Amino acid sequence: MPFLGQIIEADLSGVRNDIRSKTSWRAMRLAAVPKLLVRTLATIIGLASIVGVSIMGALSFAGYGAAKLLGRLAPIRNTYQFLSRTYDRFLNRLGEEVLRDPRDTPALRIMVSLTLTTVPIFLVQLALGKLRIMLAIAFYLSLCGLKFQRSVRMFSAKHMEAHRPLGYFSGKYDKFFGRYVEFFLGYFYGDLPELGRTVHVRLHHKENGGPDDTAASSGYDRTRPLHFFWYLSDNIWTALGFAPYAYFKARGDEKNRSRMFWGIARYFIYFGAVFIYDWRIGTVFVLVPLLSMNFIMAITSWVQHAFCDPEHPDDYFACTVTVFDEVNFMNEGYHLCHHDRSSLHWSELPAHQELIRDKMKESGSVVFRDLDFMELFSELTLLRRMDVLAQKLVPWEPMNHEQRLVLLAKRTKPARVVSA
Questions:
Q1: What global pTM score does this model have?
Q2: Does residue 9 surpass a pLDDT of 70?
């Protein structure tokens, strides 16, 4: 905090404490109060975000464990596989009818799944009035899925929808559904309208994770959990739209500032309405998902540009990570390719990577195999197992283990001092 730094600096330099007038000191302290309050509030929200995501995560992984046990029973496993194949065939036919591009059927699947589970659970809870714990558990499981798979797929579906000027749906269906993921389903996750279409596309892709990006993580040591906690605490101002609003306002971007304002307003109307109806339902069904989304957004932004080249902080080729994992839903791991050509359909990203391989090599782009973004966060920041990351690193030229460790250490150090 700046005012503490000023006081300490004066003490260490031998300057007398009474050299300034009492009026001057009083003004300095008063000016520091709002910053202290904001930092305190952000810290409390950061801690609450950890609690919120822990609750949802515990249920998600418990559900995953139960599903694994049930999957060992042949009748249950065979029934599930039959129903899943039938469901996929139905969605493929539906996608041909309602989507602008049938290749987006994976996004349609998560939309339909959430519409048939999350939405009815929420409406039933509102109709019953009194908070029901079993409905809350079902609601969290419907949002996260098993092992957070639904959250990841929802995040990717919203991400790709943000880059569709006309949305996913075609013709008459677009008139009713429009941007269905961001402007309807997103409310249940605590994901504000315009964080995708406006903030992600008009801010993040403009700044490419650089120093002026409101979600930039390059100023932190990405191997330190405490630094992530400060980042998580500050991320709430992005999650609530305030930091992007200030960004657009400072640049005189009236169109996107206005969009951001109405996105914030719509979400807070929803937030307030549920809390007025019943604060217990509001806490469990609205506030906890918002806190959990803050954590998920922070993790994603933290790792996608975690390996910044301190010598070229504005080169997104050098500062954007690529990960290859077994699932890689909607090719989310091809993050650098997406930043290079965000207008490309997600199914075309692997082919695009082949076109830019030489530039990736020249820039020293960081690529990992057998990792997803959640695993990358765990190994990099929580467990700090750089040996594991060094093994999974895909170098552009022969490197021994020690050389890989040196490279990773260089790329994860803060580009500027972080004030806690």
A1: 0.87
A2: no
C-alpha to C-alpha distance for 236 and 298, rounded to whole angstroms: 9
Cα–Cα distance, 41 to 147 (Å, whole number): 30
- Dihedral of alpha carbons 44, 378, 318, 349, sign: negative
Q: Are 336 and 365 in contact (CB under 8 A)?
A: yes
Q: Which tokens sit at 261? A: 């304002």
- Helix ranges (H only) for 251-394 are 254-277, 279-282, 288-304, 316-319, 335-340, 349-355, 357-363, 373-377, 386-392
pLDDT at 401 over 70: yes
- Which phi-psi region, left, alpha or beta, contains residue 145 (left: φ > 0; alpha: ψ -120 to 50)? left
Confidence of residue 416 (pLDDT cuts 50, 70, 90): low
Q: What tokens does 294 get?
A: 């803050």
H or E element at residue 369: strand 367-369
Tokens of 70: 């049930």
Amino acid at site 411: R
